[in-house]
Known about the structure:
Oligomer: homodimer
Distance between the termini of chain A: 20 Å
CATH superfamily of the largest domain in chain A: Annexin
CATH class of the largest domain in chain A: Mainly Alpha
Number of strands of chain A: 0
Largest sheet of chain A: none
Helix content of chain A: over 70%
Largest interface: A-B, 30 and 30 residues
Strand content of chain A: under 5%
Structural class of chain A: mainly alpha
Number of domains of chain A: 4
CATH topology of the largest domain in chain A: Annexin V, domain 1
Amino acid sequence: MATLIAPSNHSPQEDAEALRKSFEGWGTDENTIIAILGHRTVHQRQQIRRAYEEIYQEDLVKRLESEIKGDFEKAVYRWILEPADRDAILANVAIKSGKNYNVIVEIATINSPEELLAVRRAYLHRYKHSLEEDLAAHTTGPLRQLLVGLVTSFRYVGDEINPKLAQNEAEILHDAVKEKKSSYEEAIRVLTTRSKTQLVATFNRYREIHGGSISKKLVDEGSDDFEKALHTTIRSINDHFKYYEKVVRNAIKKVGTDEDALTRVVVSRAEKDLKTVSEVYYKRNSVLLEHAIAKEISGDYKKFLLTLLGKED
Amino acid sequence: MATLIAPSNHSPQEDAEALRKSFEGWGTDENTIIAILGHRTVHQRQQIRRAYEEIYQEDLVKRLESEIKGDFEKAVYRWILEPADRDAILANVAIKSGKNYNVIVEIATINSPEELLAVRRAYLHRYKHSLEEDLAAHTTGPLRQLLVGLVTSFRYVGDEINPKLAQNEAEILHDAVKEKKSSYEEAIRVLTTRSKTQLVATFNRYREIHGGSISKKLVDEGSDDFEKALHTTIRSINDHFKYYEKVVRNAIKKVGTDEDALTRVVVSRAEKDLKTVSEVYYKRNSVLLEHAIAKEISGDYKKFLLTLLGKED
């Protein structure tokens, strides 16, 4: 379930006008920005962008960039974009930075096949290269095989499970973890092509046979970029709520807080299933997610994230 | 240019009724089947299928299968389907037969990125597996990397060329041809991710530097499945008219004729660019394509293919 609270009817024109007013005079009225944009669905936000452009002949996104700054700006900027476009940017940043491949894995595994296609389209449109083209040019070896395989996948979506396949492929994954490099190729094939339902069955079979989850086994073993990406792949496919819970937990646990990761999870999931992630967080930590976040950040950034988390004004 | 001759207006109901009549009585009236289906666009053929289903509560494709046979039936069956669905079937047959990977390469490289996506959708719908899933499960090593990379690509379409990249990647391809296996990985990356325009620039650069086309070099060298697929990839991206000309030439040159290949080219291209393929054929062989084909095949199959080739009744 989503945490976003948005009115069923709003006037894009009035919203655009209120935003314009918040930019005028001495300083910017951040509260208005939060009160409006923090309570609008993706469709409503695009309507506001169009209305603003029509009335003021100006790009709202560009104007916002010049009005606000820091983590608040980054969060508003990520939020105002359409999800596919946002993911395209996140993927591009991750590729160029040469680290944080878990963002690529998230985008490729947690989005539905059609959503992932939309990200690839948005990426092509924005960068005039394909996502896999840039990714393949910046990586090598098994890491490239895994990441390119994940972002180019168009998996079957359905409940059908082949138990025999789950059994065989649990062993393929086991071999890959045990013997490492030598048998990664088959493990990559399995993880990049099978349906998620089938893969969850395979992970379950692994646990039954080997008495322990495969992702735990992987953590014990390795820590290079490829193994990290492999680990993220398995965890995000297996249970993306738990996966996000841990991303958020690590982000706020860090000395200095990892704002990028925190913003990414809140902004990406507020309209989808952040409530579920929040429930998993509470169950795991006996602290409300909004309280934990509120303790670590401040100012307009904090107000904005808490609004997306469903805090009543 | 297409060779198909189709009327701009037709009545799907009347067509359905005429087809039904051709099935009744003693034997089937093949001439009517050819006269109708051999002169209808993909859209018109789908309208006829729907009209037939509505009037007779029967699947036209199934009925045709029971009425006609042999190469004629196969050609009509391939022709009546929507292109994406037809390619999905061709790909599945190629995967299951474990040879003829050139069909996979054709589908992946000659279709536009959006057409290729449509094939992947059709494949998922028909087989409840993804195309790359079945392909990866039936292949290994560099052949798998190449084929899966090709079918999952979503290339940038545009005229922009990066000459420096063309230069560098011409050398990558050169190394791959020269040193073989060891450097295939980079060559596969280049061939499966760059835009076709960029790749043609790279092939041209290769010719300038090394004085000879890369596909010729590849033929000299190898002949295992992977190298054949690599060769087909380069040829079909470089100039698919020339590529198809050769497929047809080989198909009719063979003792016994390769009807599958012949049908595939005629049926797949009649509505797109078979006229251009035919012109390339004439230039190369000084024989009209329709005459060359007419000499090798017979009966209703011959009548049907020649109709698709634009022969006036």
